[in-house]
Known about the structure:
Elements: E1 12-19, E2 27-35, E3 43-49, H1 59-68, H2 70-73, H3 76-81, E4 106-107, E5 111-112
Antiparallel strand pairs: 1-2, 2-3, 4-5
Amino acid sequence: xxxxxxxxxxxxxxxxxxxxxxxxxTISKVLCKMESSKGDESIxxxxxxxxxxxxxxxxxxxxxxxxxxxxxxxxPEFRRFANLRGTGVLATRLYLDTIVDxxxxxxxxxxFDK
Length: 114
């Protein structure tokens, strides 16, 4: 099984999710729309396969995901989170199974290392 590296997709917006066909509880695809970077108004539909999904977004963004996604809206834990108010920043700690080289560090309060 090959592993892919992280790829940042600019001008790309999440528009939906699909679940695993067998379990119907695990998100297996992220549906996106990608705007052209050439200045024209063309939009490309893009489907990203996902083993796991981390919602590293603020409360307002997650609320919109739940509001407009039937896949997320059918789960009570997402509906309860969507009722939170004033949650603009969330701290997330990830535990990975391998060491990841981080040549640059970032801190939202102090800026970014070069």
